[in-house]
């Protein structure tokens, strides 16, 4: 592996979380036509992928599964420095829960001969965090979730990750290929360079793969998703007094009542 | 490696409620016992057995404790390969057990370890896995109804798994009560079954080089919580002193945890703990949806913030516009003073 590692970074398109607030009166979501953006934690994944390439050489390929407009997040990754991007798009993928989603990404990673697959901690829209370990499980690869930092050891064919665990951290050496999920906020993503940005916006065309290209057309989509959303209830909004007090004394008096 | 989608399984072949007893260094994660108590209720409703799954090295005592806490049986996989936790040996052991014993429901704590494990093991089983549930029930047909907050807690999605087994769910820590173990559990050892260990060290894909862990605080049982955010600007002394005066615990937003001001076990919110104290004081916290999700169940919420338009005020009972470095010490002094007068 002297010519570096094949690094694959998984990026997801989501509604902009910053534009989403809860209406305190109705308990419903104000999405204010939230535009679709790159999942915030995936910026950390992209940065890790680029830093890993800086360290060991090789290439960074961004992949996303979604409808054609999702190629915008590939563009964002390429603008940040990724070498290329693959869009997994097919009607057959519609309604996939995390099982087929991770299958599609796992198959694509296999096609790309990935040494390392880097994901975000979780998405801001459905936030299961199940896709990264799912990719690893589908391919029988090692996994490093909740990773704060990476320390590649190309001579040993090993990637060492520092993982956030209850009460502290651990350092784990994983054999390649390995799937990593970076902790949200683990690094400071580099800004996109101007030339890269222009390239991403004008010249970059993602490779497109269908379910049949990955030979999984009978294993994805709603029919192959074990979980079914059975119902959605608006959570009853929590009633709050919303009383403003203008002195610490007044605040203390209220507290004295409840304590 | 991956399981095929078909052939269709017969869901009637799958029985019993399993709880994965997460443990580290021989100590159970608190959420494990919370799930065991909840699992007991579900098993009683479906008329099935409650089975604790205990994996580790030298952890027979946890299998016995699980029985004392209400499990009908405990399955014990005891081997050095299982300490410390790693996804692939745990996953392979779980796959073999599920294949042989066919559980209907499997509950796992929504901790980093629990989510790492659950995400791995659901795939080979082709199980449905619902993330981060805060409500669990079974319907008339005995199907698990796993509900999770979505869209920043404004809605609850109820997820079912009609045609696949097991029905798996990760569950947030602090949502259910753990209860107490029964005093006399003399026959506990008889309800523990040691299972064949199917993984060998040479087949594992990773090595834990170093583990640095201290005692883990549990803020989920606190009656009073004083939480701080980015507004602490590096100084959390006002939180600590007020918490001390009120006999409560300090907590924080993810922003304050990322800065390193407060330890991760005290993070409240979507990727932290769910807390329901009697009193929650939010100081220097803006009120992001991911934070609100973890504390909206508090009885009384107080907000202290310099910005009169901070969203947190809309989700608080009492709000005061001001610098937390002034408001909290003043409040602490008042609490201490009145206490002395009373004493
Ligand atoms: C309200 C609601 C609740 C849901 N609950 C569940 C549930 O409990 N269980 C379940 O199995 N499914 C659930 N789903 C379906 C699930 O949202 C989809 O499968 C989703 O596409 C992937 O899950 P995620 O966003 O949670 O991924 P996560 O696992 O949170 O994502 C982690 C990382 O994986 C990568 N990644 C994830 N998706 C993609 C993608 N499409 N393309 C490229 N990279 C990606 C990114 O790097 C991302 O940061 C739910 C859907 C909705 C609408
Ligand atoms: C996938 C994902 C998961 C997340 N999970 C969580 C989670 O579990 N928990 C969580 O908390 N967040 C979580 N977040 C982050 C969340 O979106 C917010 O960024 C975070 O909660 C903001 O923290 P904060 O309120 O401390 O900081 P800010 O939003 O920066 O707010 C600081 C507040 O302090 C006020 N302030 C400043 N100085 C003072 C002063 N001297 N006195 C009083 N007030 C002052 C300001 O007016 C402001 O309102 C998550 C985000 C993502 C994307």
UniProtKB/TrEMBL annotation, chain A:
According to the UniProt entry, its GO molecular function terms are: electron transfer activity
**Which SMART domains does this chain map to?**
ETF
Domain of life of the native organism: Archaea
InterPro entries, from UniProt? ET-Flavoprotein_bsu_CS, ETF_a/b_N, ETF_b, ETF_beta_N, Rossmann-like_a/b/a_fold
Q: Which residues form the Electron transfer flavoprotein alpha/beta-subunit N-terminal domain?
A: 26-218
Query: What family is it from?
Result: Belongs to the ETF beta-subunit/FixA family.
- PANTHER family per the record? ELECTRON TRANSFER FLAVOPROTEIN BETA-SUBUNIT, PROTEIN FIXA
Protein name (record): Electron transfer flavoprotein subunit alpha
Q: What species is given as this protein's source?
A: Haloferax marisrubri
UniProtKB/TrEMBL annotation, chain B:
Q: Which domain of life is it from?
A: Archaea
Q: Which family does it belong to?
A: Belongs to the ETF alpha-subunit/FixB family.
Q: Which SUPFAM superfamilies match?
A: Adenine nucleotide alpha hydrolases-like, DHS-like NAD/FAD-binding domain
Gene Ontology MF annotations: electron transfer activity; flavin adenine dinucleotide binding
Where is the secretion signal located?
none
- Whether Transport counts among this entry's keywords is yes
Q: What is this protein called?
A: Electron transfer flavoprotein subunit alpha/FixB family protein
Give the species.
Answer: Haloferax marisrubri
Where do the Electron transfer flavoprotein alpha/beta-subunit N-terminal domain residues begin and end? 17-201
* Electron transport keyword on record: yes
Q: Per the UniProt entry, what are the Gene Ontology biological process annotations, in alphabetical order?
A: fatty acid beta-oxidation using acyl-CoA dehydrogenase
* Keyword list, A-Z: Electron transport, FAD, Flavoprotein, Transport
One Pfam family, short name please? ETF
């Amino acid at each position: 592996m002297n010519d570096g590692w094949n690094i694959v970074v998984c990026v997801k398109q989501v509604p902009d979380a910053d534009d989403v607030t809860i209406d305190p009166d109705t308990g419903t979501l104000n999405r204010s036509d939230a535009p679709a953006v790159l999942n915030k934690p995936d910026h950390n994944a992209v940065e890790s992928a680029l830093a890993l390439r800086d360290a060991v050489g090789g290439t960074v390929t961004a992949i996303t599964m979604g409808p054609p407009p999702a190629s915008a997040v590939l563009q964002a990754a390429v603008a940040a420095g990724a070498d290329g991007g693959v869009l997994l798009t097919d009607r057959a993928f519609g309604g996939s829960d995390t099982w087929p989603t991770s299958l599609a990404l796992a198959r694509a990673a296999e096609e790309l001969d990935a040494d390392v697959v880097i994901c975000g901690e979780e998405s801001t829209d459905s936030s299961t965090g199940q896709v990264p370990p799912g990719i690893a499980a589908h391919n029988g690869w090692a996994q490093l979730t909740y990773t704060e930092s990476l320390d590649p050891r190309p001579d040993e064919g090993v990637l060492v990750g520092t993982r956030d665990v209850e009460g502290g951290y651990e350092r784990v050496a994983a054999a390649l290929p390995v799937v990593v999920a970076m902790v949200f906020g683990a690094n400071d993503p580099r800004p996109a360079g101007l030339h890269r940005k222009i390239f991403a916006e004008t010249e970059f065309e993602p490779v497109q793969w269908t379910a049949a290209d990955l030979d999984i057309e009978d294993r994805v989509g709603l029919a192959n998703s074990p979980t079914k959303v059975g119902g959605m209830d608006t959570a009853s909004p929590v009633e709050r007094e919303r009383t403003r007090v203008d002195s610490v004394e007044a605040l203390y008096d209220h507290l004295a009542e409840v304590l | 490696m991956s399981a095929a989608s078909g052939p269709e399984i017969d869901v009637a072949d799958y029985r019993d409620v399993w709880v994965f007893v997460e443990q580290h260094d021989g100590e159970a994660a608190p959420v494990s016992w919370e799930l065991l108590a909840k699992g007991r209720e579900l098993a009683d409703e479906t008329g099935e057995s409650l089975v604790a799954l205990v994996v580790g090295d030298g952890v027979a005592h946890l299998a016995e404790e699980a029985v004392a806490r209400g499990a009908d049986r405990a399955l014990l996989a005891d081997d050095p390969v299982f300490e410390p936790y790693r996804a692939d040996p745990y996953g392979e052991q779980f796959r073999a057990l599920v294949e042989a014993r066919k559980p209907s429901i499997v509950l796992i704590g929504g901790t980093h370890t629990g989510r790492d494990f659950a995400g791995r093991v659901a795939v080979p089983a082709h199980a449905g896995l619902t993330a981060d549930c805060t409500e669990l029930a079974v319907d008339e047909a005995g199907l698990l109804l796993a509900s999770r907050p979505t869209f920043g807690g404004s809605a609850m999605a109820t997820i079912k798994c009609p045609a696949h087994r097991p029905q798996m769910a990760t569950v947030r820590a602090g949502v259910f009560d753990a209860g107490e173990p029964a005093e006399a559990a003399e026959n506990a050892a008889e309800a523990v079954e040691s299972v064949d260990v199917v993984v060998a060290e040479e087949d594992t894909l990773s090595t834990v080089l170093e583990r640095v862990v201290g005692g883990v605080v549990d803020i989920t049982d606190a009656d009073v919580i004083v939480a701080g955010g980015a507004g602490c600007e590096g100084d959390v002394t006002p939180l600590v002193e007020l918490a001390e005066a009120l006999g409560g615990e300090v907590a924080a937003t993810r922003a304050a945890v990322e800065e390193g001001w407060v330890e991760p076990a005290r993070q409240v919110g979507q990727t932290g703990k769910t807390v329901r104290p009697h009193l929650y004081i939010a100081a220097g916290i803006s009120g992001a949806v991911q934070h609100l999700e973890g504390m909206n169940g508090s009885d009384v919420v107080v907000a202290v913030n310099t910005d009169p338009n901070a969203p947190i005020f809309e989700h608080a009972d009492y709000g005061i516009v001001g610098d937390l470095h002034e408001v909290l010490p003043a409040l602490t002094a008042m609490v201490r003073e009145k206490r002395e007068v009373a004493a």
